[in-house]
Design brief:
With 422 residues, this protein is α/β, with parallel strands linked by helices. It contains 18 helices and 14 strands. The protein has helices spanning 3-9, 13-23, 36-42, 60-69, 73-78, 87-99, 113-123, 136-150, 161-176, 193-205, 221-228, 251-260, 269-283, 289-296, 324-334, 351-358, 394-403, 415-421, and strands at residues 32-34, 45-50, 80-83, 103-107, 127-131, 153-154, 184-188, 210-216, 263-267, 309-314, 338-346, 365-371, 379-387, 408-410. Strands 1-2-10-7-8-9 form a six-stranded mixed beta sheet, with helices on both faces. Strands 5-4-3-6 form a four-stranded parallel beta sheet, with helices on both faces. It has a four-stranded antiparallel beta sheet with strand order 12-13-11-14. Helix 10 (193-205) packs parallel to helix 12 (251-260). The protein starts with a helix and ends with a helix. The relative contact order is 0.11.
Length: 422
């Protein structure tokens, strides 16, 4: 793509200013908070743009409301339709209720009940929630079909000029609240609407500000597209960071990000979990996985950001309490404190006691033990979960198992078996 065609795709300042006029009395002008903990940890000035404090607890309301506010009277009379598994649905639902526009929101049947309740709450009697299929792609296909069938306007979650312009107001707000333009902005990349919007504004006002896009390690749609020089669709993705787990970045969003984003990096899902727990424990911030991504990326830029002013956009805080155990588990595994083994174990009385006495260290703890297959043989496979107090105790643990003649398989290093058994 040549420079002229790239520039033609950019969202203009006028478009973002128009979005700001639509949104100024509707959205929360979220604070830009100094984080003492993070600033001291990275020896720089870290500011957090708190989009998790929006009414719907994510930035998605900005694009959804601006697009719907821009519809013609004829379009609004027919209503709108969208597909979402979470934040976008809440933004559309809130906008339907506020603007008095009827809407149909398609969500996967697997969507947690709490999220469905929130969408219904924000939409009130203006919105019909329709659960269909098992995945977002199923819901998306049904929403598109409904739009074509009924003539209802489809509200895309990220790949629309109005959506991107609405997101651009975040860039406007954060620059308005800083005495000097930040040296770095770290933001989440899923479908690309947030990155495209913020960079469209910031790069005009402060071209020296470096914008770093952050993707989950298991869903690098922007990185894959940048490497290919065109938008590509990932075959498989890890869905844990649900707000950014997108197989295909938006076409318009990609054309903007390709020109304006300075770098894109990936963060392992386990690192995201550790960051979520740290944000809660150290800053009393409840961030969803996608919202924690930018802060999780700071380690990768530790040397570059020393002495600089850094903004991290916390894009959302819609995190289910039911996921907390999984989040803690993923964090412990990533940090090297929790390990799972398949051990060929003697099937006799006293075998577990011998394992505890001869193999476990003084501060190690068994968190799970179960035979996966019982038989008449002397030995059988047992699933063993061990939590360490110190990660450096892992090597000695393996040495003791080998010394005592236990045959074992490290499940942490086998993603297929791990996902099946754990």
């Amino acid at each position: 793509m040549n420079a002229n065609s790239q520039t033609a795709h950019r969202i203009s300042m006028e478009e973002i200013v128009q979005a700001h006029m639509h949104l100024k009395d509707v959205v929360v002008h979220t604070p830009l908070q100094h984080s003492r903990v993070l600033s001291e940890r990275y020896n720089c000035n870290v500011l957090l743009k708190r989009e998790d404090l929006q009414t719907v607890r994510s930035f998605k309301i900005r694009g959804a409301y601006h697009l719907m506010r821009s519809l013609s009277p004829e379009e609004t009379s027919k209503g709108v339709v969208c597909a979402s598994a979470g934040n976008h649905a809440q933004g559309v639902a809130y906008s339907c209720q506020t603007l008095g526009i009827p809407g149909k929101i398609f969500m996967p049947s697997t969507t947690p009940r709490q999220k469905v309740k929130q969408v219904s709450f924000f939409g009130g009697n203006q919105v019909e929630v329709i659960l269909t299929g098992d995945t977002f792609d199923d819901a998306y296909a049904e929403a598109i079909a409904e739009s074509e069938r009924s003539g209802m306007a489809f509200i895309h979650p990220f790949d629309d000029r109005k959506i991107i312009a609405g997101n651009g107001t975040i860039g406007q707000e954060l620059l308005d609240r800083t005495e000097h333009s930040p040296d770095y902005i770290f933001l989440t990349v899923g479908g690309g609407g947030l990155a495209a919007g913020v960079s469209s504004y910031v790069k005009v006002i402060s071209p020296s500000t470096r914008i770093i896009g952050v993707e989950p390690d298991g869903a690098q749609s922007l990185r894959a597209s940048l490497d290919a020089g065109e938008v590509v669709t990932l075959e498989e993705i890890e869905k844990f960071v649900d707000g950014a787990a997108v197989k295909r970045i938006g076409d318009l969003a990609f054309s903007i990000c390709q020109e304006l984003i300075d770098d894109v990096i990936a963060v392992p899902e386990g690192k995201v979990c550790t960051t979520m727990l740290d944000l809660y424990n150290e800053n009393a911030i409840v961030a969803e996985p996608a919202g924690a991504l930018p802060i999780a990326a700071l380690d990768a830029y530790r040397d570059q950001i020393q002495g600089k002013t850094v903004v991290c956009i916390i894009s959302g805080g819609n995190n289910d309490v039911d996921r907390m155990q999984e989040i803690k588990e993923r964090s412990l595994i990533y940090e090297g404190y929790k390990h799972y083994f398949m051990v060929n174990f003697p099937q006799r009385a006293g075998a577990l006691r011998e394992f505890l006495d001869q193999v476990l260290g003084p501060s190690d703890d068994i968190t799970r033990f179960e035979y996966t297959k019982k038989s008449n043989k002397d030995n059988g496979p047992a699933l063993v979960g061990i939590e360490l107090k110190h990660r450096e105790d892992y090597g000695p643990l393996l040495e003791r198992m080998a010394k005592r003649g236990y045959r074992y398989l490290e499940l942490n290093k086998d993603p297929v078996l791990f996902s099946l058994l754990i």
